[in-house]
Design a protein that fits this description.
Helices cover about 45% and strands about 20% of the residues. With about 500 residues, it is an alpha/beta fold. Helix 2 packs across helix 6 (about 120-155). The radius of gyration is 43 Å and the shape is rod-shaped.
Length: about 500
């Protein structure tokens, strides 16, 4: 079937006429008001060619004459007089309802002037009502579109309407404002030209086979996936991606709507709760380990030491006993670390000069690592408020962070300890230029007993996080593979208020 454009259809309706109709009306009927509305209202230009009313004749009621005069339309007693004055008329509409008048006009008018009688005006009335209904529908549709667009724009998630080629058909305001690119410039582009992380950095740079868009394209059903992204500052973010198929009237999938939901904060809360639950389980296990394992472990260690000192063993047996002694000591250290981790540290909260604490820890570590190619530098803004915390615990945290930085740079490098004030917290950042971490490592780095080192216990960063949070602060980690790692300790500052000690003993 041949498809015609709207312009072709319009030419078909009025037989290809390109000249406007210059109209003269004979008589005044009830349809005059409708006809005037059709002629003068631009809404009807979509349905009929240009029409212009220039005169009316055979008007026999004075009130009609006055009304037409107010409209600026001249009136004449007879159509003969009207046609003599207005030779440009090419369409006469008879509205008297008289058969004799219509016959007289047919005989009088030349072939160059078309004639339409009052019965044919009924079709104009129908066209008028149809156009008004369409106008109402268009207004309602436009209102609904504005309402829906306003609702979508208020949604904080990123919403993309895409065709099956992955090109953007529409987006909500959150997307283009974060991208800082006008919406019109993003329409028709691939989704990665528009998608951004919370800080405005690129979400992705190519089609990801794991993206639910591709899954929906294949399945024709709603799909979703969880992805992790690292922003420009190296901070890990979590996103839940959803894809919804959009079907046309024939039931065929025509578009796919994709939504990006930032669930970083929610995931952080869930992980924090999960970690608390794990610690509760570990605490219960530690009681069992302390009573049921440590006693026989001491016995094994004692007997192994006695055997190791015995002169009855040959060299091969002595090597085996030495392994038992060393592994016993390792298990004891692991058990001690576990028990220390799950116990409440009861760290005191006193006013500390954090700059002095950091400088002291840096000087201590520089003694051992300064000659091995490591440069430890302290940078601080001034003035900086004191913090509330335990000096020994914080110093141990800093020492452990520097050790981690050293282990991430086996060939040597720079370690920077910077102090600043941010949103009411004193922030200590320990930055290295080492190997960095991937998404998987960042996701698990604070989990107890997770370690990337062969002989690590996995309690270093977990213990640091526990100590800082017990002091009322928090810990963040930012890292990129090959670009180093930054661990930030957010510490509560000491305020200029009186603190009343509360006796919990009752």
């Amino acid at each position: 079937m041949t498809e015609f454009s709207q312009d072709n259809m319009r030419l078909c309706y009025w037989n290809g006429s390109i000249n406007p109709f210059i109209i003269g009306i004979v008589g005044v009927g009830l349809e005059l008001k409708v006809l005037l509305d059709i002629i003068n209202n631009d809404v009807f230009r979509e349905f009929i060619p240009e029409m212009k009313l220039v005169a009316i004749s055979d008007v026999h009621q004075k009130k009609d004459t006055l009304a037409l005069h107010e409209l600026g339309i001249p009136s004449y007693n007879t159509y003969v007089e009207m046609l003599e004055v207005h030779s440009e008329i090419n369409l006469v509409i008879e509205m008297t309802g008289s058969v004799d008048m219509f016959s007289s006009l047919r005989k009088y008018l030349p072939e160059s002037i078309s004639l339409m009688d009052h019965r044919e005006i009924v079709f104009f009335c129908g066209l008028h009502d149809m156009a008004l209904v369409k106008g109402n529908y268009k207004n309602n549709l436009a209102h609904q579109q504005v309402l829906i667009q306003s609702i979508i724009d208020e949604i904080r998630e990123d919403i993309f309407l895409m065709d099956k080629n992955g090109c953007v058909v529409d987006i909500n305001s959150v997307v283009w404002r974060r991208a800082e690119i006008p919406k019109a410039e993003l329409i028709g582009k691939t989704c990665w030209n528009a998608a951004r992380l919370r800080d405005g950095s690129t979400f992705c740079d190519q089609f990801d086979p794991e993206c639910p868009f591709h899954k929906t394209l294949k399945s024709g059903k709603k799909e979703e996936s969880l992805v992790t992204k690292v922003n420009s500052d190296g901070l890990l973010q979590y996103y839940r991606l959803y894809a919804y198929p959009i079907f046309d009237m024939r039931g065929k999938m025509s578009h796919i709507m994709v939504m990006h939901r930032d669930i970083t904060e929610r995931t952080h809360r869930e992980k924090h709760q999960n970690q608390r639950d794990k610690l509760a389980v570990i605490g219960e296990m530690s009681t069992y380990l302390a009573h049921e394992i440590r006693n026989p472990l001491f016995a094994i260690g004692g007997f192994a030491n006695s055997l190791f000192k015995s002169s009855c063993l040959n060299e091969k047996d002595r090597e085996k006993v030495q392994i038992i002694v060393e592994e016993t000591k390792r298990l004891d250290r692991l058990l001690t670390n576990m028990l220390n981790f799950v116990r409440s540290s009861h760290t005191s909260r006193k006013e500390l000069d954090i700059v002095s604490v950091v400088q002291g820890a840096a000087e201590l570590m520089s003694i051992g690592y300064g000659q091995q190619g490591y440069r430890i530098e302290v940078c601080s803004v001034s003035p900086l408020p004191n913090v509330l915390g335990d000096e020994d615990a914080l110093k141990q945290c800093i020492v452990n962070l520097i050790k981690n930085a050293v282990e991430a740079m086996p060939e040597g490098g720079d370690i920077t300890l910077s102090l600043d004030l941010h949103d009411g917290d004193v922030v200590l950042q320990v930055t290295d230029t080492g190997v960095g971490m991937n998404d998987h490592e960042q996701d698990r780095v604070f989990n107890p007993f997770y370690s990337t080192k062969e002989d690590g216990s996995g309690l270093g960063l977990a213990m640091i996080k526990k100590i800082v949070e017990e002091l009322g602060g928090r810990v963040e980690l930012a890292s990129k593979p090959g670009h180093g790692t930054t661990v930030s300790l957010f510490l509560p500052p000491a305020l200029d208020v009186e603190v009343t000690e509360v006796n919990d003993a009752g």
